Structures are given as structure tokens and as C-alpha cells.
Amino acid sequence: MRRITTSAYQPTEIRVENISENVARVIAYPFETGYAATVAHPLRRLLYTSSVGFAATGIKIDGVEHEFDSIRGMLEDVAIFIINIKNLRFKFKNNSQREILEYHFTGPKELKGSDLVNDLVDIVNPNHYIATINEDCDVKFTIIVEKGIGYVPSEELRDYIDSEFMALDAFFTPVKRAIYDIENILVEDNPNYEKIIFTITTDGQIDPISAFKNALESMYQQLAVFGNIVNVEIPTVVVSSSAVNEHSKLFESIDNLNLSARSFNCLDKANIEFIGELALMEENELKNLKNLGKKSLEEIKSVMEEIGYPVGGSQIADQKRELSKRIENLKNQKKEG
């Protein structure tokens, strides 16, 4: 049943899942109907356009005047060589905004990204193929690498780059893929609230969560201009992520307590599914559970003390409301599943 309200429901739950070094999932909920897409779509665009990365912006090859030239002893034409250089993913080892990198190679050799690693830069795709040179090749080239966002075509860089260099299309964005899914989620008795699930993949220049942070910062900066004419009070949202991280044990099933069958069955009949429900109870509440005998009570108290959450303890006193809400949502999701 939908109730009449005067403000939209404020999301309180966020979870981060690190799938691999360059892939992460960010899950946030619950949003009012329609709000999830409103938030997710611009964030996805900002992930591509505002994440900071590194790219080659210019190249100078000794003895080469233009990209349609050739290099003695190199299998690839200059145009292909330049494309391979553009596809390298650099990463500065310092806080520099711009580096000029000089290289000199003689053959026979197969050049790969790892050959360009030096004291100034790393290559995050070290196995990337660049060129094959034979014993007749003696090639010297200089690359300008810069820090930036988004994509800048070479036409816009020609006046900016030194005339000795050929300007390159600069693909700064480190985000290879940013997608989101929206799922319905039950809140109280309303199944129409929404959950956003972001999946972010980067190329290794930065990690996915840093890219997500860049997108959020950019969104805040763009919206801040309206504060000049509208005095908007931004509420502080207390999300449960800290509680989830610090007290993750509380969101595990009571199965993990390895209780005796008698104690487990008693809790199961009382609809207690998570360890956190026991941690949130006072001893008198536990005693009053139907059919819970003295022996079972002592067993539960002993096990809870062993894991650091004694029944009626004060470890989570300041987070009771937050943890209770999180557990309620977990139980609702379990019912939906």
C-alpha cells in the first residue's frame, strides 16, 4: 500500500563488493519509484567523462615527418605504430600532470608495453604489442603523456603540442565499462522501492571505487552552482555501510553459531534468522522466548560471548537502530527470494 508523504524516501543502505582488482560493484537502496534511474543515469555518464586517467597526447619519432611515413627495420607502418602507442595505458609514479618520455630501441626485438616502463611511468597493460623491429632498426621516439579526463581529439591538441610532435587523440578515461541494473525491493509492505546495482570496470590506471568517487564529486560540483540562488539544506544521511563493515558477523545466519538442535529449533520457531538479532536482544527478551530452556539459554549466551557480542552487551548500543533496520531489510529480501 502506498502512503501519502511529503518527501521522498531517503536511501540508507550502501554496499561495495570488490569483484577483482579492476572490477567492483556498488549497491545502494532503497529509492522511491523512478528515483533510481534519475540518480544512476547521470552517474554512469560521469563515470566515463569525469574519471581521471593518463594518455599519450603527442609523439615525436626521429627521422619521421608524418604518420604515413615508414621506419627502416620496423614491421609496422608509422600509422600502426602510433595506434599501438595510443592504446597503451600509462600510470604516473608521481603526482605530475605531464611527463615527456624518451625511448631508444635497436633490433631484433618485439616491443611491448613493459619495455616503456621507467622511473616516471608504469604501463598497466604491459603485454600490449607495439611493434616488431629487426637488426636494421634503430628507433628513437619521444612521447608526451598527460593527466586528464574524458576524450580530447588530436585536432584540439595541435596548437597546444610543440610543432615537432604529432598530436594524438587522447583517451584519458580509465573506465572501460560502467553499467547499472535497477531491481525492485520490498520496504515495509511496499514492493515498489528500487535498488541500484552499479558494476564498474577500469583499465587499471585507477581502481573502480576511485572512479566512482570522481563521478560523485563531479556531480556535487555541477549541482553546487544552484546554491548561489537557492539555499538548500543538504541533510546528513547516516548509511549503514559502516555498521556492515564493522559488524559483518551480525548479518550471518544463526546456522554459523553451530548451536544444538534444541536451541536452534527454538530460535527458528521465534523467527530469529541472524546473529545480530540475538546481539540486539536483552537477556530478559531471550529468556522469554517460547520453549527456550535454561540449558539452551546458557548455550546461546556462551556462544554469543565467544564471538564478541554478549547478550545484553553494550558493544553496539549506539548502532542498534541502524543494525535493526539492516537486519529487517535482509529478512525482507530473503522472503522475496
Automatic annotation (TrEMBL):
According to the record's subunit comment, the protein's assembly and interactions are: Homodimer. The RNAP catalytic core consists of 2 alpha, 1 beta, 1 beta' and 1 omega subunit. When a sigma factor is associated with the core the holoenzyme is formed, which can initiate transcription.
Give one GO term, molecular function aspect: DNA-directed RNA polymerase activity
Instruction: Return the SMART domains for the record.
Output: RPOLD (SM00662)
**Protein name, as recorded:** DNA-directed RNA polymerase subunit alpha
Q: What does this protein do?
A: DNA-dependent RNA polymerase catalyzes the transcription of DNA into RNA using the four ribonucleoside triphosphates as substrates.
Give the classification, highest ranks: Bacteria, Pseudomonadati, Campylobacterota, Epsilonproteobacteria, Campylobacterales
Positions of transmembrane segments: none
Which keywords accompany this UniProt record? Coiled coil, DNA-directed RNA polymerase, Nucleotidyltransferase, Transcription, Transferase
**Tree of life domain:** Bacteria
